[in-house]
Amino acid sequence: MAREIMSDADYEAYRRKVFDFLWREVEPLAAEIERSGVFPNDDLFPKFCDHGLWGLLIPKRHGGLGLTTKQYLPFLAEFSKVAGVVRVLLHVHNTSARAVASYGTKAQKEKLLPALARGDSSLTFAITEPNSGSGMDVACRAVRDGDKWVVTGSKHYITNAGLADLHLVCCRTGAPGERRDRRALSALVISPDTPGFTIEPMPHLMGNNGPYHGILRFDGARVPVESMIGAEGDGLEVFLGELEPSRAFVAASSLGAAERALEIALDFSKRRVTFSKTIAERPSIQAELAEMARDVYALRLILEDVADKLDKNEDCALEASIAKLTGLETVMRVTDKALDVVGGRAYFADYPYPLERIYREARINLAEEGTPSIQRLVMARALLDQPTPLAIGTLGTPYQPAGTDPALGQNPPPDLSYAHDPKNAK
Ligand SMILES: Cc1cc2nc3c(=O)[nH]c(=O)nc-3n(C[C@H](O)[C@H](O)[C@H](O)COP(=O)(O)OP(=O)(O)OC[C@H]3O[C@@H](n4cnc5c(N)ncnc54)[C@H](O)[C@@H]3O)c2cc1C
After folding, report:
1. Which residues have CB under 8 Å from 66's CB, separation 6+?
2. Residue nearest to atom 18 of ligand 1 (CA)
3. What confidence tens digit (pLDDT) does each residue in 320-373 have?
4. Which ligand 1 atom is the nearest neighbour of the CA of 370?
5. What is the CATH number that goes with domain 237-385?
6. What pLDDT digit, counting tens, does each position of 96-120 carry?
7. Which end of the chain is less packed: N or C, by CB atoms within 10 Å?
8. CATH topology of domain 125-233
């Protein structure tokens, strides 16, 4: 039986082969894909298949490569460096496939995963709706009728809607009044051939154009009961469970874009001569480059830690949201600084660097897997739920002096009566 985890040597050989393919055969197409909004499916999809890119996270026994998170993140970063649209396309495909691998029944995995690993099939990840945000306020309803779920409602912004043959849809199966019931949501795999299911393309995007983003509309679509991933009521676990690693995946794509922006700024600064000196010799430019490198390095270290936790199946909602938010802030700062270093040329497409495109592409990280406010919300919630002391601010196991109160780190706890006395309120 094939070993489940790729060895370091095999991984390194595979990584080199794929990165070589990306720079030789994909990067030269990136500007035209973005300009035209047309993805060369016939050319690139079979090559993605030859390189195993559709099955990066699918276990080997189901036809994929079964990469660990630590092994997967560099691929996302490199996709992002080469062409944002490739990153978006493969990120959504692999995250959705991961959900089936994590939560599907044996029969569902055997049916769906080999085709997903070959790229013969692709699955979207559909939570967001026009009139309700992600998660608990899902309004798209699925009502049981015999051996079918009858689905009514809509989803929008759905990535890969223009290419996928299946959609993993978050539906409300609990009663409409149960808005805060954690078991009220379920996950259904729905084919676009289902009567009552239509898909509309969405407008041109700020970046990452290619396979269109879509609006999925369900008008009494009848879906077989065996299409449910997980049990009835597992929806929150399926979708939020995948959002946690996916936040690290988005952060890795931020890392790739930020690294490319830094590489461009470094290259340009060494070539551009003003007043008989390269701009790299100017302290103000050196300061920009140094700060960009600091940001990139910090993000890389955060991601290494989160990947390690995810691979050990440790709960890391806080760390994954920190990575996602840091990734966004990093890529925004670094691409801004790169624009500053490159000057006016950066405002033009491919003149000679693709910085203008990378800048636009990176802004998608704002919305993916939750906006900054939502990341802060998740972080605060996770912080307040954790037993103290926290393990995030220390190198190694936090030190706890003997005999201290584990909750407050002090013995005895401080007298807080002053703070509680209404007379002392301002
Ligand atoms: C290009 C693109 C591709 C996408 N692909 C997918 C996809 O494949 N599948 C999918 O399901 N979704 C997808 N999304 C949706 C994405 O996850 C959402 O855009 C994101 O979750 C924000 O939702 P919203 O756009 O409705 O913003 P809104 O919910 O309208 O938020 C607007 C602002 O209000 C803030 N806000 C909202 N609620 C709260 C709150 N409770 N507390 C504090 N602040 C709040 C937000 O942070 C934001 O700043 C995609 C989005 C984009 C732009």
Report:
1. 4, 5, 6, 57, 58, 59, 60
2. 367
3. 999 999 999 999 999 999 999 999 999 999 999 999 999 999 999 999 999 999
4. 21
5. 1.20.140.10
6. 999 999 999 999 999 999 999 999 9
7. C
8. Butyryl-CoA Dehydrogenase, subunit A; domain 2 (2.40.110)
CA proximity to 335, closest of 421, 263, 423: 263
Instruction: Give the domain ranges of the chain.
Output: 8-122, 125-233, 237-385
pLDDT digits 0-9 by tens, 398-421: 666 666 655 555 556 667 777 666
Does the Cβ of 128 fall within 6 Å of ligand 1?
A: yes
CA of 133 to the centre of ligand 1 (A): 6
Cβ atoms within 10 Å of 193's Cβ, excluding its own: 7
Q: Whose CA is nearest to atom 1 of ligand 1?
A: 364
Q: What are phi and psi of 129, to 5 degrees?
A: -130, 155
Q: Which atom of ligand 1 is nearest to the CA of 372?
A: 47
Does the domain spanning 8-122 belong to CATH 3.40.910.10?
no
Ligand 1 atom nearest the C-alpha of 213 is 3
- Minimal-distance CA residue to ligand 1 atom 30: 133
Dihedral over Cα of 152, 154, 159, 161: its sign:
positive
The response to whether residue 125 sits with its C-beta less than 6 Å from ligand 1 reads: yes
